[in-house]
Protein 1
Amino acid sequence: MAEMRAVRQNVLRDEERLPPVPDPGVMVIFGASGDLTARKLVPALYDLAAQRRLPMEFAVVGISRTEMSHEDFRKKLLDTLEEQRADSVSEDVWASFSKGIFYLPGDSKKPETYEELKGFLKKLDAERGTSGNRIFYLSSSPSLFPAIVERLGEAGMNREEDGGYSRLVIEKPFGRNLDSAVDLNGDIRRYFGEKQIYRIDHYLGKETVQNIMALRFSNGIFEPVWNQHYVDHVQITVAEDIGVGTRGAFYEEAGALRDIVQNHLMQVLCLTAMEPPVAFDADSVREEKVKVLKAVRPIPEDDVGEAAVRGQYDGGWVFGEGARGYREEENVAPDSETETYVALKLLVDNWRWAGVPFYVRAGKRMPKKATEISIQFHKTPHTPFSGPDTEGLEPNVLVIRVQPEEGVSLKIGAKVPGSGFEVRSVNMDLLYGSAFLEEAPDAYQRLLLDLMLGDPTLFIRADEAEGAWRILQPVMEGWSKNAHAARYAAGTWGPEEADDLLGRDGRKWRRP
Ligand code: BG6
């Protein structure tokens, strides 16, 4: 009897561990001829199909203005997939997955497009069993977001009928500033409830970004020291070696503050600084993140020069190759002052972090790609060893490497082998790649699956998007009065002014 019970319990446990497969449904992608669909969304869906994590009754419908047949669209997607994966695209998986891919040419501003789409989706429900479940993925130009939402609403496609769901996914940038983000939230909420809205930030889909929470909340040893009593300051770096490439026109409008800081960097800051959530569910996690955003002290407009640095890359060398300056990039004005580098000193006004600066920076054309969080602890109050013996000793630093070489390292003091008592800093290193056999899925894979399963935990709530803008608004206003961007050579760690930002506090940027 007891044995049978044990067997039954094991079966139950195995079932709980089986990855869930979403219900049938359709993903409609607006702006489907763009890069994101071919480079990110479809490869992620293909991988899910290869892992049998997509239901058989699943379809993708691409919409954009370009004239294309279903077959042309499939071919374009396959070409990009093959470019990315060389020989590893399975003919069988692609054959069965691509049967569910369709394309409708149409102007997303015109009501006719939505009438046609509605009919097409009904047909798919009947022929492919997609069960009335719809995801509307807005990957078009952000200027079209309000119109698309309104047309969807007017066509009644926002309504969840007969048990089917209707979800709206919005790509970044979410607005251009605080006012436009508030307006956009208002426009969307006229038709979609917050539970139907999924604001996507691909950083939250990264395993190592989620690992910030795993590290903090599944270990007993970090939380007790994760506060102003032990932490001297925190540095968050999102560095890229690439320049703006072919995205000059987009970047001229965005700049690093809107492209990276408002979303990816602020999210990483929230996960690093937040209180432990009571549960790992959408409300609990997002509630704690919003509290961090509320606690970040906006930099007063008059202090922007002191606490915020904007830079732009000139020509230089990256990995031994000549790199042109931002102003020489395609579709960039020759006198552009758009920032390709941002550094900020932020303060989080709460009990945990009072007086602990968070220095954050994001830049293009840095010497390497590196996203990391470093928690720099206070110096020991006293070292019993002689001065010369401790010259190579630095305070403890915990570094969470988000990418590349994903892992965690802790800088600790250790005795140099020998007869004296020389102590030096060394790194204790954990590489996720060698600790686990499983390969980390791409960020979009994780997020698309959560979206289909209806789990918004790793998506951004309206108040988070607005909270991040609230912090950055005075910085943007300060900069609008003095648009000058400090210069840095491509392949360096940003302008001198960024070193001064920490130098004034007697600190230095870490070299990732
Ligand atoms: C995107 C930005 O959101 O993130 C790009 O628009 C940037 O400018 C990219 O290059 C960086 O993402 P990742 O995953 O390569 O760190």
Protein 2
Amino acid sequence: MQISSNVLDLPSFNFYKMKVFNTREEVLTFINDAKKKSKTIGYVPTMGALHQGHASLIKQSISQNSITFVSVFVNPTQFDNASDLDKYPRTLENDIELIKQIDSNIIIFAPTSKELYQGNITSKNYSFDGLEHEMEGKHRAGHFDGVGTVLDLFFTLIKPTIAYFGEKDFQQLQIVKKLVSKYKLGVNIIGCEIFREASGLAMSSRNKRLSPSARKEAAFINKTLLEAKKQFGTKSAIKVEEWVTKQFAKNKQFKLEYVSIANIKTLKPVKRKSKKQQYRIFIAAFIDNIRLIDNIALN
Ligand code: PAF
């Protein structure tokens, strides 16, 4: 997706005491110095609107590395829908506050699109050996090329020892592992458990856009996943998917985009269960026109 460079860029926030870099040059100088001192670098890529799920990734990075970098960047090339990009929450001041409360030594990188992409805001084309064609890939054209492009840029610049990703975007996590191994980017990728609200709703930056009643109702996704998990013990994957589809059809507040019970390695839908394979169930659904995704392990 081609986007003009001045759309929705973030302002500069260097007046905070903690390090908030806005340019590639600042990052390069810092990283070169850190590498000379053999520091390990943990990296948490984010699109901002940070929540406790992000905080848990950041804390894990702090516990395992000498330096932690957090990027806050709403990546235009991974949106297939201009209005979704437009409405994506942008809360840099709050994000900096939240990070500061975790640890004021964390380094934040919040570039503009023009700065990060050096004026050429387009995606590269990647092959992730078919992982990109399942689930999200079927519904969000070009999404994973955009994710691959931006992470390639960040990894090349920050040269992290370890990068941390949440399992809520499980397909993304598997694709990032593929990106790193296939394109030899030399980063260890760690997947971290989904952080949930008390209701079971998976934490997401998009939850900020839900009305209080939709936010309450959204717990229905996780409730349905948990019931599906119980049924998966005795029923076929197809039967469980059919049951989930029916539950969503009965709930008038939701529009189900897909439900898929898939092998965690290939992300392909399960035809026949095998005890040797691991499976997860994945859902994407709209409530109040806001797209939410969630998934849980089935075995
Ligand atoms: O998961 C996200 O927030 C984004 O896809 C990521 C990994 C920060 C890339 O823009």
Protein 3
Amino acid sequence: MDIKSAYEYAREAYARLGVDTDAAIKRVKNIPISIHCWQGDDVRGFENPEGVLTGGIQATGDYPGRARTIEQLRADFDKAASLVPGKKRISLHAIYLDNHGEKVERDEIEYKHFASWVKWAKEKGYGIDFNPTFFSHPKSSDGFTLSHPDQKIRKFWINHGIACRKIAERIGEELGDTVITNYWIPDGFKDIPVDRHAWRERLAEAYDEIFAGAGDKKFNRNAVESKLFGIGAESCTIGSHEFYLGYVATRKGILLTLDSGHFHPTEVISDKISSILLFCDEILLHVSRPVRWDSDHVVIFDDELKNIALEILRGGFEDRVHIGLDFFDASINRVAAWVIGARNMQKALLYAALEPTEKLKALELEGDYTSRLALMEELKSYPFGAVWDWYCETEGVPARDGWLAEIKAYERDVLLARK
Ligand code: RNT
Ligand code: ZN
């Protein structure tokens, strides 16, 4: 059966539940996914070609063909984006600056170092998001940045944060769009600290300095990302969940970032969205996949991914929850990793958009939990795949595994030719 006929069959099946599949597709294709640039080169960036990744995060594997220049990274990103349906943004880290081979310190970066990204994104129709880089630097080598007790080091990182905020504000202005800037710092202790309070106090003050004088929210919004632990920071992370939840609740206009890998292993971010949105205006997600630890595996179409999407769409929160991806796998084709993860995010959104939510909510309110469970389970074998295929086809991207051959050809012709 061809994709169109299969879709028609699916449309009818969902219509019997009161679900409009055309409307679901329309809804999902307007929800942007912010795809992280750092999957393309194992979080190395272009600041220092010899640099190593620090900060307690790790990309493992040695698959050939990693992007080594801005041009290569852009080409790879484009390739991946061409195989993913829906609206796309690129999330840039400060170390992906276009420095023309010149050394520019982190506290001295300016908009001009990102102007070529803006030009490129405009041409391609991508939005841009931004991240200061508080790791992979000599001044973060002892594990601390914004909470550092040495005033000079702390100031250096505060200035980096301010420089990034200003760059992001300008990017937003240039694009006529809202950039989301995410602040994540690695600060934490390998072993048990004594004065947790003092480190956290300094951190709050540092952020206040960075965000003082923030520009128009139309062009940039700042988000802060919590974490449970990192490699080498097992005993205490200064920027914990409670720290940031308290921070955003008391500072107007700052978003909370929830990374799916940054909590206890049985704790899920899908359950947090509905609570946080009662008290904070907006959330940024870092959709990732922890396997036994915060391993940043490629996002797969698993229950938690579906639950995240369901929580966003059930509440009609698509304007308040910004969806970003955050994984880095160097053990498989990196462009394919992007495609798999980003397609799965899109898939999960479509899956969620096809839920007869109002019907389920009514059953819940009546106390008919039997029907609620029965329907939720039956929905799992509805012809979702046919709607997904049709969505891909109408978006002009390959349906099913049709994209894999393109990636294999790209690997043969482009990636393997890189030295
Ligand atoms: C680290 C955080 C952070 C980084 C990126 C590269 O644990 O998840 O978001 O992954 O900034
Ligand atoms: Zn993250």
Protein 4
Amino acid sequence: MNRLVVQKYGGTSVGNIERIKKIAERIARLRKEKIDIVVVVSAMAGETDKLLAMANQISAIGKDRDMDLLLSSGERVSCALLSMALDSIGCPAISMTGRQIGLLTDNSHTKARIKEVDTNRAIKALEDGQVIVVAGFQGINEHGDVTTLGRGGSDTSAAAIAVALKAERCEIYTDVDGVYTADPNVVPNAHKMNRVSYDEMLEMSSLGAKVLQFRCVEFCKNYDMPLIVKSSLVEDSKGTLICKEDSSMEQPIVSGIMNDKNQAKITIKGVPDQPGIASKFFTGLADENLSVDMIIQNVSDESQTDISFTVAKAEINKATKVVQDLGKLIKARDITTDTNICKISIVGAGMRSHPGVAAKMFSTLSKENINIIMISTSEIRVSCIIEEKYGELAVRVLHKVFDMDKTLVNS
Ligand code: ADP
Ligand code: ASP
Ligand code: MG
């Protein structure tokens, strides 16, 4: 067998025909080195949002099965076009949808998890000397219905295919040249990290660094698959390698600052302060496959209390309906929602040995007059929910206060 590399190109990288042709040339060059290649593509930039907007014009709570069929079409367009571009320059290629590449998922429409990749067809195509171009972000479930893997899911398609085909590495090509200490489009002084450990990247992805989808990092960590983030827009981008932690890696107090804009808050006011109430709401949400992130419950006042929690913005309508139905049953006084929030997080392994990091974060936000709505912490992370309009300002001031504007991390 030849060496095998899996490459994934994001929306900007396949954003127009010119870029698709450029990528085809890049792939054909690598192919000449006798390397087998599987290419996973996202939809052309903006296409998934356009499809979502069309669905939302019809219904705020559409059927998830229909939504998946709709959203998967974006990736099919770029996949077919790239395969044509490769063929047209004499590099034999075959396009494959999620079904054709054998990507089987569970039944959770719009956020399905990959169960298995049946590689038979892919192996035959590689043996025939073809470059395989895969429509990312999609699979099929046990009923043969199309499923999608959640926003940013093409990253995870690439990781799962790399693991299943035992590729030597998984390369993610995007519009920035690696993983930075903060979103480089928001913090001009952010630094690119040459290496990041799987664990740190897992934290960063789960907290809103959308450069890699969380489950992509999880797959690569579990199977020790080298994962590289690079720019498709510049030649010879060195990128960032995500790999096992090693002792030569620095442990700065704060290594990354994230802003997760995909958050919405629901508050249930005036519920009886008695055993079983919280369990009713959160069981109801779990039964509908809705994930809850932060939760706070107020101190009880005259045997009544308020509960606030956050969910993904895309799921706010569904979650509100569940909570309203249950709220009626237990006679909650009021239910309110807020979609103008974001979650700011600071992450760093060095936090374990440095007290006062949370205090410094809170005082920095207060100096900017930014009100903290909710707080959660772990051993190596502090997160605050604040008003969305202050999100970018918060990231910039925290980046400065924690001395990250000048520190080069793991380089
Ligand atoms: P693609 O379409 O290639 O999948 P995404 O938009 O999903 O690209 O991810 C790349 C974007 O992630 C960058 O343009 C950048 O704005 C954003 N980003 C957020 N946090 C970070 C970070 N810490 N490092 C690098 N990029 C980040
Ligand atoms: N096209 C999908 C999205 O915009 C999946 C991806 O790009 O990875 O979320
Ligand atoms: Mg992405």
